[in-house]
């Protein structure tokens, strides 16, 4: 078990380094306002609820690239890419998924869950949910179509 703990710590350190590198490379071509700007110097007019992202829930991770918090409508962990886009590269997707999985393990405490990548209510701003697989659980949503 001790070796597994070291591998986990090593993986966490590697992930932190990759996220730091990602944050340095992040650029935004749109102007954004609200409590969740990609760059604090940007001014903007956005109607997107995920760009405004008024915090009323538990926040697990918040950096310049993404934020992970409890979704205020379904009360399950949700990761939001801060840039208003639906397209990020595969490495960024992998980081985003890995960080949400880590929070999901903490949130569900051993119960099974899945990453839901279907954009339901806000179709044009990249965000995913960590949903329970138990249909009786709070936040459960039936899979409508295949996700990534």
SSE blueprint and pairings:
Elements: H1 2-25, H2 49-52, E1 59-62, E2 66-70, E3 77-81, H3 90-108, E4 113-116, E5 127-132
Describe this structure in words.
The structure is a single chain. The model is unreliable at 23-45 (pLDDT under 50). It is built from 3 helices and 5 strands; from the N terminus they run H-H-E-E-E-H-E-E. It has one domain (2-132): HIT-like (HIT family, subunit A, 2-Layer Sandwich). It is 32% helix and 16% strand. The protein has a 5-stranded antiparallel β-sheet, covered by helices on one side. It is globular, with a radius of gyration of 16 Å. The protein has helices at residues 2-25, 49-52, 90-108, and strands spanning 59-62, 66-70, 77-81, 113-116, 127-132.
Give helix % range. Answer: 25-40%
Number of domains: 1
Give the end-to-end Cα distance, rounded to a whole number of Å: 32 Å
| CATH topology (level 3) name | HIT family, subunit A
Summed up, the helix count is: 3
Strand content: 15-25%
Q: Which CATH class applies here?
A: Alpha Beta
Computed over alpha carbons, the radius of gyration is 16 Å
Order of helices and strands: HHEEEHEE
What kind of sheet is the major sheet?
A: 5 strands, antiparallel
Overall form: globular
CATH second-level architecture: 2-Layer Sandwich
**SS content category:** alpha+beta
> Can you count the beta strands?
5
């Amino acid at each position: 078990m001790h070796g597994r703990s070291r591998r986990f710590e090593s993986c966490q350190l590697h992930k932190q380094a990759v996220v730091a590198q990602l944050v340095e490379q992040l650029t935004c071509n749109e102007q954004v306002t609200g409590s969740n700007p990609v760059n604090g110097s940007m001014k903007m007019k956005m109607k997107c609820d995920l760009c405004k992202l008024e915090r009323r829930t538990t926040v697990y991770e918040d950096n310049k690239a993404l934020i992970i918090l409890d979704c205020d409508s379904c009360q399950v962990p949700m990761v939001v890419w801060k840039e208003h886009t639906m397209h990020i590269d595969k490495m960024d997707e992998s980081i985003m998924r890995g960080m949400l999985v880590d929070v999901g393990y903490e949130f569900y405490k051993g119960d099974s869950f899945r990453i839901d990548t279907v954009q339901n209510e806000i179709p044009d701003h990249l965000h995913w949910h960590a949903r329970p697989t138990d249909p009786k659980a709070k936040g459960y949503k039936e899979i409508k179509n295949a996700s990534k």
